[in-house]
Amino acid sequence: MRDWLVGHWVAGAGFMAAALLAVVPALTLPPVVLLIFLHSPGYMIHQVEEHAGDRFRRFANTVVFDGREGLTRMAVLVVNLPIVWGLNLAAFYAALAYGPGYGLVVPYAMLVNALTHVAVGARLRRYNPGLATSLVLFLPLSLATLFAVVATGAASLPAHLWSLAGALVLHLAIIAQVKFRLRRLPA
After folding, report:
1. Which among 59, 80, 71 has a CA at the least distance from the CA of 16?
2. Whole-number Å distance between alpha carbons of 12 and 175
3. Sorting pLDDT into bands at 50, 70 and 90, what band is 179?
């Protein structure tokens, strides 16, 4: 089952994104909570661009890690399904139950991810898998959500700061795991 999931999750992300977007007209959510909900299909669309054909893992291992396997297919699966999808789902339900401030980690995580893709693209002066959706989807959606939260006063400054910190810690943990793996590999 694990091998099947590793090989097919990206296609599932595409179908899930379409299904989630198809139910949007039937949802009766506060506008800011709806924006937080939209981060799930947004991430799934990004995952299709980024990971179809194992593009991101192969790019990272070849270009960024100089031919060393810093990212495994299983690591990519774990980051994208239980962590990204799980975080988006938990944040959506927290925002729904307790208010938008409890779901802010999602737009901040999306913004950090987008800025990382943009920085890598600028540094390497080339496309990296996920850059296009970072520019046309992640930046507008995450910023629109954050501006809507600020405009409506739906979250306190500490909620913003804790959410940004959580997004940064999440990305740093992924980087630390890759660096740990690279240190354990033969040179």
Report:
1. 80
2. 25
3. very high
